[in-house]
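Final report, closing paragraph on structural work. Over the funding period we assembled a curated collection of sequence-structure pairs, and we close with a single example.
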Amino acid sequence: MSVETTLKNLEIRARRIIGVPCVAIIDNNRVEVISSVFSGFIRLEYRKNGEVVSRSSLLT
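Its predicted structure, as stored:
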C-alpha cells in the first residue's frame, strides 16, 4: 500500500472519530492523524514520531 493511500485511509478514519489518534507505521515511522473541530470545521493534525508535521512532508 502506498504512503498516499495509507494517509487517505487515516484521514477518513480521523474525520469519523474526532479527537482519537489514527495510527499507522510507514517506513518505520509512527504516523498519527488527529482530528479536531475548530469553528465548525474539521481540522487534521499530522504527527510523525510525536512531532507535528505537514501532510506534504509525509509524502516526501
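The longest helix spans residues 3-16. The chain has one domain: 3-59. We thank the funder for supporting this effort.
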